[in-house]
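Worked Example 4.2. Consider the chain below.
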Amino acid sequence: MLSHQRHTTPLALLALLSCSLATPGHAASLWDAARDEVQHVWNDGTLDAYLPLNTYHMRWAYTKEKIAEFNENPWGFGLGRSLRDDNDNWHALYAMAFLDSHKKVEPIAGYAYTHPFIHAGEWRAEIGYTAFITSRTDTLHSFPFPGVLPLVGISYGNFTINSTYIPGGKGNGNVLFTFAHYHF
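Applying the procedure from the previous section yields the following structure tokens:
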């Protein structure tokens, strides 16, 4: 854990992605806060390893035939740097690649933040978000695009299982993506 209190908020990264209504001066200060947070995690964090575990397509959103076509085993791997602050919040920078629903490689890089809302010894239940850039063959013809998604996790010591939900409509999105990470 860090010995000093951080004054920048990880929500600055989230706000940066949605600052289209902000004034130029406000956007600059958000950019500065986000840059400081990234530098802090990179400089003070330690190594993490990521392992994608499951891609679950909500059965109500797809036909049985479409579900049968999907890959739900997202083989892949990732590395990152993370730290826990004085309040036990998790801050992470990560890069990962895995097989998407169509068995195509999907790279992703981003920032993640979680806050523990339940502690029981070394066990933690956490909630937060991830802000990222990814690229998919079936979206924008593989052109990189940003996203922000919710993140929940269960941790024991340095091992965590996280899940995020990709919203959508009938026949798209509505996917629960689960991955593990270990903080060295």
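Confidence is low (pLDDT under 50) at residues 1-11. The domain at 47-183 is CATH 2.40.160.20 (Porin). Compare this with Example 4.1 before moving on.
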